[in-house]
Design brief:
The protein has one domain: Glycogen Phosphorylase B (Rossmann fold, 3-Layer(aba) Sandwich), CATH 3.40.50.2000. Helices cover 60% and strands 0% of the residues. The radius of gyration is 16 Å and the shape is elongated.
């Protein structure tokens, strides 16, 4: 039986949320719920097990600071508008109210 890492079975990733919240550019593969956090739209993702693509993405972030900064700003904005605790808490309350209605 193949070994599954947390990355391959994760639906949510705290490191991604924290990076977005801090305005840090994200370098990740296209796994789990990454696209729910803007992967592929807000920030680029690379295919699983593609080391060359991962290195190329890091090099792009290093060599294209204006592009990197725009991605960082977009990630921070996404975190503020979609992932902030007051918003998430309200969604939880609404879900519980709907279930117990």
């Amino acid at each position: 039986m193949p070994i599954q890492t947390a990355q391959t079975i994760s639906g949510a990733n705290t490191a991604i949320v924290e990076a977005l919240s801090c305005g840090t550019p994200v370098v990740t593969t296209d796994v789990g719920g990454i696209r729910d956090y803007g992967g592929g739209n807000l920030f680029p993702v690379v295919a699983n097990n593609d080391d060359d693509a991962m290195i190329a993405l890091v090099e792009q972030f290093l060599n294209r600071p204006m592009w990197r900064d725009e991605i960082s700003r977009a990630g921070r904005e996404f975190a503020v508008n979609k992932l902030a605790w007051p918003l998430i808490a309200q969604q939880h309350l609404e879900t519980y109210e709907a279930l117990t209605g």
